[in-house]
Amino acid sequence: MKIVLDHIVLNVRNVADSVTFYRDVLELEIERFDEFEKGRVLFPSARINEVTVIDLFPPKLWQIRGENVNEKAPNLNHFCLTYTESDWNKLTERLRFHGVKINRYADNNWGAQGIGISIYFNDVDGNEIEARYYQ
User: In whole angstroms, how far apart are CA 114 and each of 8, 37, 111, 117?
Assistant: First the structure.
């Protein structure tokens, strides 16, 4: 089985400041920032390599998850692992077998390699994990 880190999602207070940091300091390529500024996408990303990105979630997306923007939200929103479709199906079976609740299912979800199919669940410490595959 081959598993790849697809992306991590950071809660950021100011998207423009974060874009400047990741672009100018870490010299990462920024994707979808123009579309974000025009309101066409919910967040931009900083590309680490061909299969991994850092998504930069603005405060309005923290509210979707029920977190209070006025309080300090955890910086790491969630991380995502990419599976083959077959291994993803086996993972969903293992989650059910072990009694791990799948919190949500989402298709047509943006990731490092484009649009994929995802499930979200929590580990034993409450960290949210996204598992996806690309068609």
Answer: 15, 20, 5, 10
